[in-house]
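Practice problem: predict the structure.
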Amino acid sequence: MDFELTPDHVTLLDALEGLVKPFTTAPIGEVPFALGNEELEAALVEGGFLEIAREPEFGLVGAMLVVERVAQLPFAVEAANSAFVGPLLGEGVARPVCVAEADRLWQPIRFLRDGATLVILDNQGGASTLTPATGTVSADPESLFAYPMGLVSADEAARALPAPHLDGRDLRMRANLALASEATGLLRAALQSTIEHVSERKQFGRPLATFQALRHRLAEIHVRTDSLYWMTLRAAGLGDPGEAALAALHAQESARIAVYDFHQMLGAMGMTLEHPLHFWTYRLKALTGEYGGRGRQAMTAARLLWPEACAV
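Answer:
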C-alpha cells in the first residue's frame, strides 16, 4: 500500500495548519479538566473540515489527518465522530456526534449533552439513534477526564429509535478509526510536552533527558506513536473493519503504557493543572475504555483478520 499523501491531502493539511495555529498554545493557570473552545469548533465547522470524508478525493484518510491534528491541541472539541461517523447520518446532523454501545449507556459519554446526536451500537451489528431532549442529560460532576462527559437518563435512552438504514459494521469501523486517529494526536502532543519538560528540568546537575533510562522509554513511546499513525492511516485507506479494530487496540494499549510513563517522568508536576500534560493524558485515559477496551478490540480484530485461526 502506498502511504504517500496525495497533493489534495497535503493541501488539506496546509489549510488546517493555518486554522489551528492560533489555538496551539496551552492556557496557563487554573483551568478546568475539560477545556473546550467554541471559536475553534466554529472555525472547523465553517471551514468544512468536519465534512471532509464526504469528498471522494479526501475520504477517510482526510478525516484521519484532520482528527489527528486537531487532537494535538490543548482544547477538547468534538471533531472525531463528526468527521468519521457524521457523514453516514445525513446532511445537517446535530452536533456534537456521540457514539456509545447499547450495553454501556449507563456510563458517562464523551461530549454528550441535550440536543446532541447519540449513535448507539449493539452487539448484533445494528444501530439506533437518539437526540436527547432538554433536561435528560446531566453533566458528570465527578469526572476527571479532560472531556465534557454526559449521562443520559434511562427513560430517555429507552426512546432511541432503530436505524436499519445504517450499517452497524461500518459505523463501528468508523468509530474505531475516530478513536485511533484522536489517540494518535493526543500521544504525539503529550510526548512533545514531556520531552520539553525533561529537556529543561535538571537533576544531579544535568537535564533529565540525558539519562539513558528515560531516553529509552521516550524512544519506545515515539515508536508506538509513529506506528499508530501508520496503522490508522492504513486502516482509513483500506476502509477495513479488522484493520480499524487493530489500530484501536494499538491505540488503547499504547495509551495505557504512555500515560503512566509520562506522569512518572514529570513527577508531581504532572499531577497538577499548572502543567498542560493533563490536557492530553486525561483524554487518553478516557479512550482506553471505549468500545469494550483492549480485550474486545483484540477479539474483533482477530475474528476479522484471521477467521480461520479463530475458528480452531
